[in-house]
Amino acid sequence: MKIGSMVGDVFRSLFQRSATRQYPFDRKDAPDRLRGKLHWDPEKCTGCLLCVKDCPAQAIEIIMVDKANKRFAMRYHLDRCAFCSQCVVSCRAGALEMSKEEWELAAAHKGKFMIYSGDEADVKRLVELAQAHATGTEDK
Ligand code: SF4
Ligand code: SF4
Questions:
Q1: Atom nearest to 80 CA in ligand 1
Q2: Any ligand 2 atom below 6 A from CB of 73
Q3: Nearest 5°: phi and psi at 73?
Q4: How many other CB atoms are found less than 10 A from the CB of residue 91?
Q5: Is the overall model pTM greater than 0.70, yes or no?
Q6: Is residue 58 part of a domain?
Q7: Could you tell me if the CB of 99 is within 6 A of ligand 1?
Q8: End-to-end Cα distance, the chain
Q9: Which residue, judged by its Cα, is nearest atom 2 of ligand 1?
């Protein structure tokens, strides 16, 4: 490249709008079809497990909490999720959707990537069980 043309490029770029954005200070709305964090509606879930079966990343667990009342909780492994949306397509009950608002999902601690959804008391119990399992203090 000749010095002359290089100087010309530099000079032109001084007067052009920047092609990049000053994220996170300069933000745009996410596109409507963006696939962000998975959300689950326990009221709609029938426990059919199609989402679990069809997930290529084994990122979803649907846990039976109360068989008689057909109550479930979900454990979502965000760090495994490929954001392919297959589970949303597979769910005939319309219980799953991917948020277009929640897509900045990085975290410094791995624990943030295991997300429980469902009734508050059920989730608390499942978290306690998981912690006991991790520390080897669960009931034998
Ligand atoms: S979006 Fe894809 S990878 Fe993520 S939980 Fe659903 S099926 Fe699994
Ligand atoms: S596919 Fe839908 S209804 Fe079936 S277990 Fe998954 S979330 Fe529940």
A1: 3
A2: no
A3: -130, 160
A4: 20
A5: yes
A6: yes
A7: no
A8: 73
A9: 84
